[in-house]
Structure formats: structure tokens, C-alpha cells
UniProtKB/TrEMBL annotation:
This is Thioredoxin peroxidase. It comes from Penicillium nordicum. SUPFAM superfamilies: Thioredoxin-like. It holds the Pfam family Redoxin. Residues 48-213 form the Thioredoxin domain.
Length: 213
């Protein structure tokens, strides 16, 4: 698999699957050199696909829902949510959106999962969760604004879009989480799709996920 970049007036190609192309490179030196020349190297990142194991170090943040902090103006206390551990023996539907309280996410994406939650449960989903780059306070408020109570749908924060970046599914321009959906069945990915069109909810929507279960 070749990765083409533009270097000093010439196009260069690196075979990212061939370690011989990299074994003699001093990356610290190249990083300083390319930085001084305002040049970036873009390498294809590993994305999740069906059959892969879910990463073992995924930690999100969220604010657990409870009656005392059920009002949208109640802040609650954020805690770490170790998704890798919590989901190891469960069937999980995880969908990601670029941002809470944004038009497509609020009108087309989240409502589909709320409406189809009973069907998702019938298909064996133990956990349904939405993640975005917003902080846990915003995600908590967004869940309340959508009338979600308890742990019907977990509204998780992916700080700095770390998880999304690690799987290559963050938006490069904005640094936000991408729009995608992943199904994890007892630690194994059984479905993973990202939207390639802006403002479109197809492959990451509840209907597409239901069809995959």
C-alpha cells in the first residue's frame, strides 16, 4: 500500500506495509527536518474492521445519570469509563458524532438510536453509547436534553478525540470525533463503518447498525 506525499518539489511514495522503507530512518531527525521545512508526513492509520479485537486501553469520561442530578442544569461529577473493561463480555453498539447539540447529530443521528432502542435490545445489545469530543458536562446535558434517563444510552466524552484519532476516524481539519458506528461483541468488532459524506447519517445510523446485528 503506497502513501504518496509531496516533498521539496517532488512526489515521493512510501510503502507503509514494507518495513524496509523505514528501518534505516531516524524519525527524530526527520521530524525536526520536516518541521523546519513545514512538511508533513501522512501515514495510513489502522482503522477498526470486522473481526478485529477492540483495543485494550480505551477510556472515556462520563457523568452517571441519577435522580438527584436529573435536571439539565445539574452538573454531576465526571468519572473515567474504562470501555475496554466494561465491554469485554458484552454486546455493545457505539456510535460517534462530531459534536453535541449540533444539527445533524441532534436531528438525524441520536433520535434514530433513541427510537430504535427497544429493537437494539431485542437484537442483544447490552449497551448503547454515543461518544463525541465534547467534555463530559456537555455530553451529560445533551443526554438530558434528549430525555435519556439512566443508562439507556451512555453519553460519553472522548477527550481530545483520542480514541477516534487512534483508529484514524477523527476529522483532521477540526480535530473532532468523526461520524461512525462500531458494534463490539464480547471484545470483537463485528461492524465498523464511518460516514464519508458531511452531514449524512447512513452507515452510522441506527437502521444500518440494526441490519448488521
Amino acid at each position: 500500500m503506497s502513501n504518496v506525499d509531496y516533498l521539496c518539489g517532488k512526489y515521493i511514495a512510501l510503502d507503509v506495509d514494507n518495513p524496509r522503507h523505514f528501518q534505516n530512518l531516524n524519525f527524530s531527525y526527520l521530524s525536526l527536518l520536516f518541521s523546519s521545512l513545514n512538511i508533513q508526513i501522512h501515514l495510513n492509520m489502522t482503522t477498526l474492521k470486522s473481526g478485529d479485537s477492540f483495543p485494550s486501553d480505551v477510556v472515556f469520561q462520563y457523568i452517571p445519570w441519577n435522580e438527584e442530578s436529573g435536571e439539565i442544569t445539574s452538573c454531576g461529577i465526571p468519572i473515567n469509563y474504562n470501555a475496554s473493561q466494561e465491554w469485554a463480555n458484552k454486546k455493545v453498539v457505539l456510535f460517534s458524532v462530531p459534536g453535541a447539540f449540533t444539527p445533524t447529530c441532534s436531528v438525524n443521528h441520536v433520535p434514530g438510536y433513541i427510537q430504535n432502542l427497544p429493537k437494539l435490545r431485542e437484537k442483544g445489545a447490552d449497551i448503547v453509547a454515543v461518544v463525541a469530543f465534547n467534555d463530559p458536562y456537555v455530553m451529560s446535558a445533551w443526554g438530558k436534553a434528549n430525555g435519556v434517563r439512566g443508562d439507556d444510552i451512555l453519553f460519553l466524552s472522548d477527550p481530545d478525540a483520542k480514541f477516534s484519532k487512534n483508529i484514524g476516524w477523527a476529522d483532521e481539519a477540526s480535530g473532532r470525533t468523526g461520524r461512525y458506528a462500531i458494534v463490539i461483541d464480547h471484545g470483537k468488532v463485528s461492524y465498523a463503518q464511518i460516514e464519508t459524506e458531511k452531514g449524512v447519517v447512513k452507515k452510522s445510523g441506527a437502521d444500518a447498525v440494526l441490519a448488521s446485528l
